[in-house]
Amino acid sequence: MLTDFAVRRKDRIIFIAVFALIVFLLHRRSQQLNAPIVPPTYRVPLEFKPANFDWSSAKQHFPVETLTPLPKGKPEQLPLVQHQFSKAYKDDDITKKRREAVREAFIRSWKSYKDHAWLHDELLPVTGGFKDPFGGWAANLVDCLDTLWIMDLKEEFYEPLPEPTLLTKAVELGNMLYMAFDTPNRTPGFWLTFEDAKAGRQLAGTHDPSSGPTSLSLEFTRLSQLTGDDKYYDAIDRMRQLLERTQEQSLLPGMWPTMVNFREGTVRGDNSFSLGALADSLYEYLPKMAVLLGGREGSASYEKMYRRAMDVVIQHVLFRPMLPEKEDFLFAGTTFVHEDGIHLVPEMQHLTCFIGGMFALGGKIFGIDEHIDIGERIARGMKGEEDLRETAWNMLRVSLKSTQTPLANSAISNVTVTGETEKENSMESFWMAETLKYFYLIFFFS
């Protein structure tokens, strides 16, 4: 039989044990609440897993005799691109709250992607689940890595893909894409078919989009800079030489047509000229390549091509629409060259929305004030005007309200309707990779 002291001692031990258990459970729950969101399918950092085929060892049927080396030396000091805000522009409480609202919208979408579509291309934002329109290589994850960094979500950035893994995978992908250039004239076709690449049956296209072979310029150049392997830059520099040689040979000298005969290296088979679909990135990358090369060898060529092309664009492609309030806006149409002259079709493609930034970037780095003004008229946002930040905030509020779902945000079927919108159960990667990133930067002073 226990004494009173023994009973009290036993009660104290039980009380301490229960209290310790409660503290432990509360601490564990707090850790769980504050821990990074980890989807069920992902518990440890991803490791590099080689592809089934090592493209770096694949035979080159049309090998390069002499590689063009990546430009070396110290880069030039380029002009600042960011607008230099005056002291009147302050990072006030309103701006901070708006910036945080964008960040919260991103985190909400990112959490749902991790919970419902991790390692897949896209989230289904209405029903949950995922779809893989790009082959299931985690397009959403890859596309928004820079947004994670910009929004200071660095733990989330490093969580799935540590830096060595990223570079190793980039080299593997680069080697696979490099095989597309294994054609008789070292110009890739529109499609990379593995069987044809391995067998040496690849040919450049005779009627391919002009932006096709030129859309790897930045990626391949940067890959050469990171790895020291000149082969990627050599592949892209051959495309630069082709553009330089044919720029004045088209039906609209100074621009390249929408479709090009890359097999023969000729540009007179198409009479349409545009900054939109099938041609956009060709022009977009001209000033960006000059920046990436940092004024070193090759930069002058890209600047020259940009200046010449934009002179023609200003003369024959840009137009001022007839608006009720007579606003001084500019849009980019499509120009056709016929026997009786040059004809502009004043219809704007949504894929030309980037050209305001292109003109502003070119104007800044090449010192062309006219291009900065044109960029402002196209994009209305290149000169640090405070009213445009208010416009952006209104756009964001409406966008979030119109697209929000229980999980994230969805494309809507009709932007002209009022009231409840019809959701399409689709959230493309650019929602987090571009739209929210740009909104965030609008409210960020640096």
From TrEMBL:
One of its GO terms (molecular function) is calcium ion binding. Its cofactor is Ca(2+). GO terms for biological process: carbohydrate metabolic process; ERAD pathway. It comes from the Eukaryota. Keywords: Disulfide bond, Glycosidase, Hydrolase, Membrane, Transmembrane, Transmembrane helix. It is an enzyme of class 3 (hydrolase). It holds the Pfam family Glyco_hydro_47. Gene3D superfamilies: 1.50.10.10. The chain crosses the membrane at residues 12-28. InterPro entries: 6hp_glycosidase-like_sf (IPR012341), Glyco_hydro_47 (IPR001382), Glycosyl_Hydrolase_47 (IPR050749), Seven-hairpin_glycosidases (IPR036026). Pathway: Protein modification; protein glycosylation. GO terms for cellular component: endoplasmic reticulum; membrane. Its EC number is 3.2.1.-. Belongs to the glycosyl hydrolase 47 family. This is alpha-1,2-Mannosidase. It comes from Monilinia fructicola. The lineage of its organism: Eukaryota, Fungi, Dikarya, Ascomycota, Pezizomycotina.
